[in-house]
Specification:
The complex is a heterodimer of chains A (about 400) and B (about 600). Chain A has about 400 residues and is an alpha+beta fold. Chain A contains 14 helices and 17 strands. An eight-stranded mixed sheet of chain A has the order 12-11-10-13-17-16-15-14, sandwiched between helices. In chain A, strands 2-1-3-9-6-5-4 form a seven-stranded mixed sheet, sandwiched between helices. In chain A, helix 3 (about 70-80) crosses helix 6 (about 145-175) and helix 10 (about 300-305) packs across helix 14 (about 380-405). The longest helix of chain B is centred in the last third of the chain and has 21 residues, at about 500-520. With about 600 residues, chain B is of the alpha+beta class. The radius of gyration of chain B is 22 Å and the shape is globular. Classes of the chains: A alpha+beta (about 400), B alpha+beta (about 600). Bound molecules: zinc ion. Zinc ion (ZN) binds near residues 234, 296, 369 and 370 of chain A.
C-alpha cells in the first residue's frame, strides 16, 4: 500500500500539481485493515474521520501549486457565493465528475456529506489572521489511490480550462471584473513555456513489432514530458502489419510498457477490449486516411480555444447548451478544424466526427476535450503537429486577450 | 405514497392454497431495497430449515428501478436456499420478468409450501391462479415455452434436469435468460412448480421523470465511453465472450480442470469465431441498452450463443476444441435446464479422475444422462464437489463451498482468489467481481498479482454488487457508471434522498445478513478457502507472464484482514455487536 501511495504522490508532483515539500506536498492515505499515510500531517486527524464515515479505501488531499491554487481559490469563492459548485464545461468533467462541489471549511462532516455523492470536494481557501491557507482538493477511491490522483488531476485541469475560457468570454461580453484581470495577470508567470524544440523520435516505417512497441512507448513518454496532456491521460496508436497497437484504457502515457493492446484490423481477436475508449475513433481514422501514427493529448490552450465562440452568435444558436455534441458551425483554430463529439461510441461519439475532419487535415481538435494528430510513417509528424497546434493556440489566445483588453 | 416500488408483495402458500398481500412500510423498503435484499429478508427466518422443507421460501423480486427507464433495471433476483451448497442460493436473471411483475402491481413474490402435483402459477395483474401442469412435467424448456406462448407476458420455467433432481438445475426466463449456479430450478421442482407466468397492464410511478431522464443520460454517456461495454470489441458487439481472448492473453484460462492456465487452441475458439460462424444478433433484458446476449443462426434456427464461461469451460476445462460442441452443449443444458458452468466443471472433474479424454458424443450423452438422471449421470448431477467426494477424490473438485469455479483462474488475479473464497454463495466471480479492476482496468487498474489492499476492495465491492442486485440493475454497467450515478437514478425514481455511500451501507447490511444465514448453517473459516491446487501448483507461465502458485500465507493474511474489515470474528463468524449496528440479530450458537 505504501508503495502505491508514493507512486501517486509522485505523479501529482510530476504533473506539476503538487510540490515535494511545504503545504503543497500531496497527502494520500490508503486503508486495508488499517490506514497508512504517505507522510505525517496535521490534516490526517480530520481525514481519518472522513475514512470512518465512508466505505472507501483511499483518500487524496492536495493544496495545489500555482497557478492552480489561485485559480481554484477564485472559482471556489465564486461558487460559495452562488450554488456551491463549480461547473466546468470541458469533456472530462461533463462525463466523469458532473460538477465540482465546494465547501467553506475543512470539516469532516461537511467533507463526508459531499463525498457521499461525488468523487471530489474542494475546500475554499481561508484567511486566519494574516495567514492565507490555500484551497484544497479532496478525492476518494474504493479501489486504489489512483482514483484520487485521477480525480484531482481532472479537477485542476477543469478549473484551469474554465478560468481561461470564462475570462475570454467575459472580455468578449464586456463583463470582466478587476479581480478577473488581476488573477489573469497573476497566473501568467506560472504558466511556464511549452517547449519548442522537437524531440528526436524513432524514425519509421518500423520493421518489426518490437520497434513498434518502443515507438509507441516513446511517443507517449514525450507527450507527457512536453506537457501536452493533462497529467498522463490521452492515447497513442500505431498501425503495423494490419494490427493497431494502441494504449490501454486508463493507462499512463509516460508508462506504456505492458499497457499496449495489439488490435488486428480484421477483428480476429477481441483482446482490444481493454484498449483506449477512443479505439473506434482510431480505427476509423486508420480506415479513412493513409496515416499509421495517431497521437491524442489534452494540450490546454487547444482545449480552451476550442470552446471559444462569439457571444452574439452563441446567443443566437439553437444548440448553445449542447456545443460539445451539436455545434452546427464549421469552426477552426488557426486553420485546425474543431469538431463536436463525446468520448466513446455513442450517437454523439467523436468517432463519428473526428475521422472525417482528419481526412483533410493532419490535426483536429475535439470541442472541450483535446487534440488528435496523425503522421504517415512514425510519430515525428504527429508530435510536431501536436506541438505546433498548441503553440499556435496559445499565441492566438493571448492575442485575442490583448486585443480585447486594448479596447477596454 | 410510494414511488418506484408498487408497495405490494404477493405471498403464495402452495400447501394451503392461499395468497396474502403484504404492504410493507417504507422503512422496510429503504432497508432491503428489493431484489437480493428482499430475498434475504424472507430467507433469514427459515434459514435453518433444509432447502427442501415445505416451509422453505422461494422469492422472486424486482427492484425500485424495474419497469422504469432506468438503464439496465430489467433484472430479477431469485432467492432461496441452495440445494447444491446449503448456502444462500440466489441468482440475478435477465429477461422481462421484473418489469412484468411491477406492471402487474407486485414488487415481488414469495412462495412457500408445496403442491401435491405439478402446477403453473399464472399472475395477471392482481389475479393469481394455479393451473394444473401435469401435461408439461417432463417436457423440455423450449417446448414448454412454445406451448405456453407467453407473448407480452414473462415466463419462468424449469426443465427435466430440475424435475429429476440435478443439484445445479436452473430456471429459464423468457426463453434465453438463465438463473443458474445455485440450483434454484430444483427448489421450484421440489415445490412442484413447473412455471410462473406473469403479465401486467399497470405502470410504475416515478417521482421525478425529468431528473430520471437526465440521470439516465449520464449513465448512457458513461457506457458509451466504456471499451469493455460498447467498444468495438465489447459486450454489445460480441457478448460476454469478448472476455475470452483476454483470459488467454493474461494466461488465466482454466485448462484441464485448473491444472493449467493456458489452452493452446484458444485463439480458434474466441468470440470472433462465433460471430463469423453464427452471425449473431443483439438481444438483452427489457430496457437494456447494452444488449450483451447473442442469438445466432444455425441451420435457419435461432440459437442462444454461449456466454463466456460456457465457451471457456466446454473447451479448455474439459480438453475439447470445437465451437460446435460448445453451442450444442449450451443448447442441451438450456434444453434440460441446468447450469453450464457446473455441468462442464463436473465433466472436467470426471476427466481428471478417470483419465479418459472426451469425444463430442460422450460430452453430449453425459449431459443428457445427467439431466435425465440415468447411469453415470446420477453422480454427475451432484455437481463437481458431490461427484468428486463420491469418487473418493474430493481434491479433484475445483469448487468453493460446493459451487464449481467459473472461468477465471485465481492464480491470475488475487482479488478473484479472495473473492471466490469469501463469496456467500460459493465459488462465484460475481459477488466481488474483481475482474473489473484486475483485468478491465475499471475504475482503475490494480495489480492482479498482489493481495495488497484487496481485502477492503473485496469487502466494498461485495457491498456494491449487493446493492446492484437489490436495485436490480446489471453489474456490467458498473464497468462504466458508478453508484454515484445510480444514486441519482434512485432519487429520481423514488423521490427519496440518498447517496452512493448511503446505498453502500445498505449493501453492507444485506450482505452481512447472508453471512449470518450461512453461519447458521455451519459455514465458517474452514469453508472460506480455495482448493489446495492453487497453493501448490503453478499455472502456465509464458509470454513474460509468470503464474506461480498463490502464496498460502499471503492469502490467509488477506482473509484475516477481510474478516476484520467485514466485522467477523477470527473464525469468520458474525459478531453480535456488528450485527446490531446493521440492524440485524445474531447470537453465537
Ligand atoms: Zn482524450
Amino acid at each position: 500500500m505504501e508503495k502505491t501511495l508514493d507512486k501517486f504522490v509522485d505523479r501529482l508532483i510530476k504533473a506539476k500539481l503538487g510540490a515535494r515539500s511545504g503545504p503543497c506536498f500531496p497527502l494520500m492515505g490508503g486503508q486495508d485493515d488499517r490506514i497508512v499515510w504517505n507522510r505525517k500531517a496535521d490534516e490526517t486527524r480530520i481525514l481519518e474521520k472522513v475514512f470512518d464515515g465512508l466505505h472507501i479505501n483511499s483518500l487524496s488531499f492536495l493544496r495545489p501549486i500555482e497557478p492552480y491554487t489561485s485559480i481554484i481559490a477564485f472559482l471556489a469563492k465564486k461558487a460559495l457565493e452562488s450554488d456551491g459548485t463549480i461547473s466546468p464545461k470541458d469533456c472530462e468533467t461533463r462525463t466523469f465528475l458532473h460538477d465540482l462541489p465546494v465547501i467553506d471549511e475543512f470539516n469532516p462532516d461537511k467533507i463526508i456529506q459531499i463525498l457521499k455523492k461525488r468523487k471530489s470536494v474542494i475546500v475554499a481557501p481561508k484567511t486566519t489572521g494574516t495567514k492565507e491557507i490555500g484551497p484544497a482538493i479532496i478525492a476518494h477511491g474504493t479501489v486504489s489511490p489512483e482514483q484520487g490522483f485521477v480525480t484531482i488531476s481532472s479537477v485542476c485541469f477543469a478549473c484551469f480550462i474554465k478560468f481561461f475560457t470564462d475570462y475570454l468570454e467575459a472580455l468578449q461580453k464586456g463583463i470582466a471584473t478587476d479581480s478577473d484581470h488581476h488573477l489573469f495577470d497573476a497566473a501568467i508567470p506560472h504558466l511556464g513555456t511549452v517547449r519548442k524544440k522537437m524531440p528526436n523520435l524513432m524514425k519509421g516505417p518500423f520493421q518489426n513489432e518490437e520497434n513498434v512497441y518502443s515507438a509507441v512507448i516513446e511517443a507517449g513518454f514525450k507527450t507527457v514530458e512536453y506537457g501536452l496532456v493533462d497529467s498522463f491521460f490521452g492515447n497513442v496508436s500505431y498501425l503495423w502489419n494490419h494490427t493497431l497497437y494502441i494504449s490501454q484504457t486508463g493507462s499512463s502515457l509516460d508508462e506504456l510498457a505492458g499497457c499496449i493492446d495489439p488490435v488486428p484490423l480484421d477483428g480476429s481477436t477481441s483482446a482490444g477490449i481493454t484498449a483506449s475508449s477512443e479505439l473506434s475513433a482510431h480505427m476509423e481514422i486508420i480506415q479513412r486516411t493513409d496515416c499509421t501514427a495517431i497521437l491524442h493529448g489534452h494540450p490546454k490552450f487547444s482545449v480552451i480555444l476550442s470552446m471559444d465562440c462569439d457571444p452574439v452568435e452563441k446567443a443566437a444558436c439553437d444548440f448553445s447548451d449542447q456545443c460539445h455534441i451539436k455545434c452546427p458551425k464549421k469552426r477552426f483554430a488557426d486553420g485546425i478544424p474543431i469538431v463536436p463529439g463525446e468520448v466513446g461510441t455513442g450517437p454523439f461519439g467523436l468517432c463519428n466526427t473526428l475521422p472525417l475532419a482528419l481526412e483533410k487535415n493532419n490535426s483536429a481538435i475535439v470541442y472541450g476535450h483535446g487534440l488528435f494528430t496523425i503522421g504517415k510513417n512514425d510519430f515525428s509528424q504527429a508530435f510536431a503537429s501536436l506541438l505546433s497546434v498548441e503553440h499556435a493556440c496559445q499565441r492566438l489566445y493571448f492575442e485575442k486577450i490583448k486585443q480585447l483588453r486594448k479596447n477596454l | 405514497m410510494l414511488f418506484g416500488w408498487t408497495g405490494n408483495i404477493l405471498h403464495i402458500d402452495l400447501t394451503k392454497k392461499e395468497i396474502e398481500v403484504e404492504t410493507p412500510d417504507i422503512d422496510i423498503y429503504m432497508r432491503y431495497i428489493g431484489g437480493k435484499g428482499m430475498g434475504g429478508r424472507y430467507l433469514r427466518p427459515v434459514a435453518e430449515l433444509p432447502w427442501d422443507h415445505p416451509d422453505m421460501v422461494f422469492s422472486i423480486f424486482s427492484g425500485p428501478l424495474s419497469g422504469t427507464i432506468s438503464p439496465t433495471s430489467g433484472r430479477t433476483h431469485i432467492v432461496s436456499k441452495s440445494p447444491l451448497t446449503g448456502l444462500v442460493g440466489d441468482s440475478s436473471v435477465g429477461g422481462k420478468l421484473a418489469t412484468r411483475m411491477k406492471q402487474a402491481g407486485w414488487d415481488g413474490i414469495v412462495i412457500k409450501g408445496r403442491c401435491s402435483h405439478p402446477v403453473g402459477i399464472e399472475i395477471m395483474d392482481s389475479t393469481v391462479s394455479l393451473r394444473v401442469a401435469d401435461d408439461l412435467w417432463g417436457l423440455d424448456t423450449e417446448t414448454v415455452h412454445h406451448r405456453l406462448a407467453p407473448q407480452h407476458g414473462s415466463l419462468a420455467l424449469i426443465g427435466p434436469a430440475a424435475e429429476n433432481g440435478v443439484k445445479y438445475a436452473s430456471i429459464t426466463v423468457d426463453r434465453h435468460f438463465i438463473a443458474g449456479r445455485s440450483g434454484l430450478g430444483l427448489c421450484l421442482a421440489k415445490k412442484n412448480i413447473k412455471y410462473l407466468l406473469v403479465d401486467g397492464t399497470g405502470r410504475c410511478k416515478i417521482k421525478n421523470p425529468d431528473k430520471l431522464k437526465q440521470a439516465r443520460e449520464d449513465i448512457l454517456r458513461l457506457t458509451a465511453a466504456s471499451p469493455a461495454l460498447m467498444g468495438k470489441f465489447g459486450f454489445t458487439c460480441l457478448g460476454t465472450g469478448a472476455v475470452f481472448d483476454l483470459m488467454d492473453n493474461r494466461r488465466m484460462m482454466p485448462t484441464d480442470n485448473f491444472r493449467r492456465t493456458r489452452f493452446e487452441h484458444a485463439s480458434k475458439l474466441n468470440a470472433a469465431g462465433y460471430a463469423e460462424k453464427y452471425a449473431p444478433r443483439k438481444h438483452g433484458c427489457l430496457g437494456c441498452h447494452i444488449l450483451c446476449k447473442k442469438i445466432g443462426q444455425k441451420n435457419g434456427q435461432a440459437v442462444s450463443l454461449p456466454e463466456f464461461e460456457t465457451m471457456s469451460h466446454f473447451t479448455a476445462l474439459i480438453g475439447c476444441m470445437d465451437t460446435d460442441l460448445v453451442v450444442k452443449a449450451n443448447e442441451l443444458c438450456n434444453h434440460y435446464g441446468m447450469d453450464t458452468i457446473s455441468a462442464a466443471s463436473t465433466l472436467a472433474c470426471r476427466r481428471e479422475i478417470t483419465g479418459i479424454a472426451y469425444t463430442e458424443e460422450k460430452v453430449l450423452s453425459l449431459l443428457t444422462d445427467t439431466a435425465l438422471q440415468r447411469g453415470e449421470g446420477v453422480d454427475l448431477g451432484l455437481g463437481a464437489a458431490g461427484y468428486a467426494r463420491k469418487m473418493g477424490k474430493p481434491e479433484a473438485a475445483m469448487a468453493v463451498k460446493g459451487m464449481a469455479l467459473p472461468a477465471y483462474d485465481p492464480r491470475g488475479a488475487y482479488g478473484m482468489a479472495l473473492g471466490y473464497a469469501l463469496s456467500t454463495r460459493g465459488g462465484c466471480h460475481l459477488r466481488a467481481y474483481p475482474i473489473s479492476h484486475e483485468i478491465f482496468r475499471k475504475p482503475v487498474a490494480t495489480d492482479r498479482f498482489s493481495f495488497s489492499g484487496k481485502a477492503r476492495i473485496i469487502k466494498i465491492a461485495e457491498d456494491l454488487n449487493t446493492i446492484i442486485d437489490s436495485l436490480t440493475a446489471c453489474k456490467f454497467t458498473f464497468f462504466a457508471a458508478g453508484l454515484e450515478e445510480y444514486a441519482d437514478v434512485f432519487e429520481a425514481v423514488t423521490g427519496i434522498d440518498t447517496s452512493a455511500q448511503d446505498l453502500l451501507k445498505k449493501g453492507e447490511g444485506i450482505y452481512y445478513n447472508e453471512r449470518i444465514i450461512n453461519a447458521l448453517n455451519g459455514f465458517d473459516i474452514k469453508d472460506d478457502d480455495l482448493p489446495a491446487r492453487f497453493f501448490t501448483e503453478p499455472g502456465s507461465s509464458g509470454n513474460n507472464i509468470l503464474i506461480p502458485p498463490i502464496k498460502r500465507e499471503d492469502f490467509i493474511d488477506a482473509r484475516n484482514k477481510y474478516y476484520d474489515i467485514r466485522g467477523l470474528d477470527t473464525k469468520g463468524l458474525p459478531l453480535e455487536e456488528k450485527a446490531k449496528t446493521l440492524g440485524l440479530v445474531w447470537k453465537k450458537p
